[in-house]
């Protein structure tokens, strides 16, 4: 039987984190060793990304785009994704020759198909929050014989929070510095920032979604290549075009960018429907495909830099911006972001000893650890929740599977 060893004595534990993000490109799986109380409490032992099949990716895109699904369709997709997550976990364990029975637990984020932060429905009427992540943890536990902690977002939403971002506590653990103020800027489908003030100052942390990361860029690349490319690899499409100032100015007037944190966003705001509006505007203004790619890339860079200036610098020193996520591998985007940030140095997470590609999967292993220790995983200053809270739900495997 899989042991919940966090309930036992000892401070060293092995865990596996699973993450499926807004880019819809695949599952990130990370094996970590967690040493509670150690100077460097988390060590990455293995990391892989397992791409989705075209059929599964299409089903997830449809589910998260607001398309109406029958209840049975969503239930089937939940179990189907659970099986894919379970296979990813087992594949990573085989790749690094690590037996499942040595794992204390698996932390799985699953895949967000609906996310509605608390807010206003108009005319002052309150809008209750709701969030839904699929990727059935019971299937993962049954396949691996390992306990699974999943469903991390609902408790924060139940407490009036945005349910995101959930990684600031992890960022503080991995990137906090006594003297330097750092912005940890993840650029996935959606871009999100965590401000870590110097530990010697009383300034509070803040974290929020800055706006689009590579979501619009990826969608345009797929559109321009008739689905042959899922992303603008190495920023090549954008590099062939020129930024159109008038179009960029129009994009930067999006109301989300002016909204104060705490705030989150996603495909419902910057997904397919919004891209159609942007393409229509570009066609009206006779903007070429390559120029549109360059301008959308500039939009991601400019919106990130605007968020740093608008919502972070006033709170304390921002000595460095640490960039993580798939967008960090786009040299055109990085060049534009560096130009937008001016004198603020832009550095890769690897320079600080952290694999930026693995970071989100690692984060959900750590959040699972906090949950099983009975420790809060959210940061109310970041999410807007009324209280710190233990996040996640525990699913135990049947007896005998792990052995």
Task: Show the helix and strand layout.
Blueprint: E1 12-20, E2 26-35, E3 42-51, H1 54-64, H2 71-95, E4 105-108, E5 111-116, E6 119-120, E7 126-127, E8 130-134, H3 137-144, E9 148-150, H4 154-158, H5 168-175, E10 182-187, E11 190-196, E12 206-212, H6 215-224, H7 236-239, H8 245-251, H9 255-258, H10 267-270, H11 272-284, H12 289-312, E13 320-324, H13 331-341, E14 346-348, H14 359-372, H15 380-383, E15 393-395
Parallel strand pairs: 1-4, 4-9, 10-13, 13-14
Antiparallel strand pairs: 1-2, 2-3, 5-8, 6-7, 9-15, 10-11, 11-12
In brief, what are we looking at here?
By secondary structure, this protein is of the alpha/beta class. It has helices at residues 54-64, 71-95, 137-144, 154-158, 168-175, 215-224, 236-239, 245-251, 255-258, 267-270, 272-284, 289-312, 331-341, 359-372, 380-383; strands at residues 12-20, 26-35, 42-51, 105-108, 111-116, 119-120, 126-127, 130-134, 148-150, 182-187, 190-196, 206-212, 320-324, 346-348, 393-395.
Main features:
single chain; 403 residues; alpha/beta; Nucleotidyltransferase, domain 5; 2 domains; six-stranded mixed β-sheet; five-stranded mixed β-sheet; 15 helices; globular
Shape: globular
**Terminal Cα separation, in Å?**
6 Å
CATH class of the largest domain: Alpha Beta
Q: Strands of the largest sheet, in order across it?
A: 3-2-1-4-9-15
**Largest β sheet strand count, sense and barrel closure:** 6 strands, mixed
Order of helices and strands: EEEHHEEEEEHEHHEEEHHHHHHHEHEHHE
Number of domains: 2
Q: Give the helix proportion (percent range).
A: 25-40%
Q: Helix segment count?
A: 15
The CATH homologous superfamily of the largest domain is termed: ATPase, nucleotide binding domain
The counted number of beta strands is: 15
> What is the third-level CATH name, the topology of the largest domain?
Nucleotidyltransferase, domain 5
SSE class: alpha/beta
- Flag low-confidence runs: none
- What's the rounded overall pLDDT mean? 91
Work out the radius of gyration: 21 Å
Q: Which architecture of the largest domain per CATH? A: 2-Layer Sandwich
Beta-sheet strand percentage? Answer: 15-25%
